[in-house]
Structures are given as C-alpha cells and as structure tokens.
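Box 4.2: Ligand-aware structure prediction
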Amino acid sequence: MSRRRRVYEGKAKVLFEGPEPGTLVQYFKDDASAFNNQKTGIITGKGVLNNRISEYLMTRLNDIGVPTHFVRRLNMREQLIREVEIVQLEVIVRNVAAGSFCKRFGLTEGAPLPRSIVEFCYKNDELGDPFVSEEHITAFGWAAPQEIDDILSISLRVNDFLTGLFLGIGIRLVDFKLEYGRLWENDQMRIVLADEISPDSCRLWDASTNEKMDKDRFRRDMGNVEEAYQEVARRLGVLPGEGPRDEVKGPTLVH
Ligand code: TMP
C-alpha cells in the first residue's frame, strides 16, 4: 500500500496513482462510518467483500452498456479504475421507504413507494450532504442540464437492472446511493458511474424475512454486520475463498 502516491483518502477507500496516466487504484478499507462521520468503526473483512461485490456489480452493469469507471480487480482489496472528475452529487434511488426518507415524510419503514424516486444530495461533509433539487444543481453549476439527464437515465437503468439481479438471489433492493464522474476521451466528455456499489451504499433486505443485509446493521448496532456482508457476497457467488482457485462462480438463483 505504500510507495505509491496517495491521491485521495476517504472514509472507506483510498485512491492511489495508477500504473498508467488516466488510471487510479481504488483500495477498499475496513473502516466504516455513519451519520456524517459521527459514528465510526471497523467491519472486519468489509474491504475485501466490497471490492468483490462492487467488481461484480460494475462488471454486470458494464456488460449491459452502463458506462463505469471500473477497469479490473487487481487483488483482494484493490481495483483499477479510470480517473474521473467526480460530480459533487450523491444520487439516491429509492424503491421502498427507509432511513432518512421515513423521517422526512413520516413514513413507516418498508412502505413501498408508488414509483422509484431519485434524489440528489450535494456532496459536502461540512454541510452534511444536504438534499438539493435540479434548480440548485444547475444554478450553482454542479452539473449541466444534459449531465443531469444522463445521470437520471443511467440511475434508473441501474435500478431496474440491480433490482432484478438482487431479486434473483432473494434480496430486495430498497435504496442505494450512486456517484458519477466525468471521463474525458480525446475531446469528448461523458458521464460514467464511479465510486462503488456495495452493502455500504445500498439497503438490501432479505426478500422473504426483510432481514437487513447492509450497513444499517452497523448504523443501528444490530450485530452480525460482517456476516450480513458475507451473505450478500455468498449469494452473488463472489465470496472469496469459496471456489477452486478463488474463482468467481456467479449468483445462485433463488426460486
Ligand atoms: P438515507 O436513507 O440515509 O438518506 O440513505 C439512502 C441510501 O443512500 C442508503 O442506501 C444509504 C445510502 N447512503 C450512502 O451510501 N451514503 C450517504 O452518505 C448517505 C446519506 C446515504
């Protein structure tokens, strides 16, 4: 992990200079944080699992034509990614009422929403990532109208695809957060999916018992946090050390 230039260190990941210009190495830590860093801790093995889970989901999304920053996994905790300029927005897609949405609208957790709802937060820790509208985004220049259109359509496509993928392994995709980046190729810029997709950034409930299989177990001191992340990886068929030569087997469908 040393002898490379550290480009950025966040709460759950470190970015290092990559082997070629325009690439970075994304290192997944076991550190966990919640409530804008007011609660911190370690989820043992989380970095290894999130590296695998995010690799799998980003690869499947790439396969259906969703542009992402992901290039390939390098080792247990690192993946090679394309360097992008991060759009300063957190994009939240919700299918079922949970978390901050219940508080804001007085809803019971688990209430299905009439349709999928996309929300934007301005990525700014000092301000506590406030919810913003498209008006704020364009007025302050955080993203152009065309970029917002691209972000919305990609996010809904990701939601449709991941909802089906997770349902196939007995998991309900309640909500999730996405981040986007601007990728320049020659003089062309396009919006691509960035960051990670993992139980850190998604609410995942067992489809038959509604048991939580995500970071809410850490946020709410529910216990069995590591086990929940492992179970998501296991159902996706990417639990390290399971197959011969540690190969990814793919998901086991639940009927
Ligand atoms: P929320 O209910 O707390 O607003 O969270 C909605 C979803 O977004 C949930 O799956 C957790 C995820 N999320 C993050 O990944 N990072 C964040 O900083 C926040 C606020 C939410």
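In the box above, the bound molecule is thymidine-5'-phosphate. Residues 145-167 form the longest helix (23 residues).
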